[in-house]
Amino acid sequence: MADYSAETALALSLISESGTTVTIRRVVTGTYDPVADTDTGAATSDFVVAAAFLPLMTAGRVRDQFMATGGGVQSNSTLILIPSKTTGGADLPYVPAAGDTAIFGTVGSPNDKWWRIDSVGVLQPNLTPILYTIVMTKGAGTVE
Fold this sequence. Notes:
Blueprint: H1 5-18, E1 20-28, E2 31-33, E3 38-40, E4 43-54, H2 61-68, E5 77-83, E6 101-104, E7 113-123, E8 131-138
Antiparallel strand pairs: 1-4, 1-6, 2-3, 4-5, 5-8, 6-7, 7-8
């Protein structure tokens, strides 16, 4: 099997130098106990990763691929690329998925921007993830 560590490092380097950072958030719902009126097991998991924006109107073949496969592209959608490593070089703790949230800016600040992740694709030669392509819709999570 081929070694794609150089390509993975290159993707991380280029996106880190020219892009921005994004917090990927996954919320796992808990179990509600109506007798005790409690919710247990709910958890939020965040990680920070470098990201490059590609406006969908100019993303060409990538946009066309999502539209052809029913990717749910809307006029307020955008596309980002993220490497398969965090900004610190570690493997992502989990692969982003539809329903997760992408947060740009400092989480909790008045200027943070929340996007709902609609679909995720992966560039993975020989099953080695290098890049994830993420289509997002603006306005998930908090009031803009």
